[in-house]
Design brief:
Blueprint lengths: L1 H6 L4 H4 L3 H23 L4 H35 L2 H6 L6 H14 L2 H26 L2
Helix pairs in contact: 3-4, 3-7
Length: about 140
């Protein structure tokens, strides 16, 4: 039901993932992999471990600057339209207010976002388990 209502929504194009968001998504995934590979690449050579670390940190900087910009834009719109005050005081919302709220709610349901967090968490857990094994049991 949700999928159908999203496809027919007038804001679907705003909720739909842009090409740029996919680029930043992949930058975040590469950064997550690179950071977690550092421990394993040290055995191949310091150069490889450092290169992986730099790629990971630079990727995270790029990814989180992008995410911060999006958060700032949403926050400015919420403040500009006094959405919190309108809701607190139970004032009527305009069509523009509803559009903003719907866009924000739609973006929160992004599958790509959940995949990204799951991927980062999963890679971290695997890297931690493998590192503990090699550091204490191998």
């Amino acid at each position: 039901m949700k999928e159908r209502s999203c496809k027919t929504c007038s804001l679907y194009s705003k909720c739909e993932d842009s090409f740029a968001s996919w680029i930043y998504f992949f930058i975040g995934i590469v950064a997550a992999i690179a950071i977690r590979l550092v421990t394993f690449l040290i055995d191949l050579g310091v150069f490889y471990a450092k290169a992986s670390w730099y790629i990971g940190v630079a990727g995270f900087i790029i990814f989180f600057v992008y995410k911060f910009r999006i958060l700032q834009e949403r926050s400015k719109q919420i403040s500009k339209q006094n959405i919190v005050e309108k809701i607190d005081r139970k004032w009527s919302l305009t069509n523009e207010d509803y559009l903003l709220i719907k866009t924000i709610l739609c973006s929160l349901s992004s599958k790509k976002e959940r995949i990204n967090y799951f991927f980062i968490f999963g890679l971290s857990a695997v890297a931690l388990v493998i590192a503990i094994y090699f550091d204490f049991f191998a």
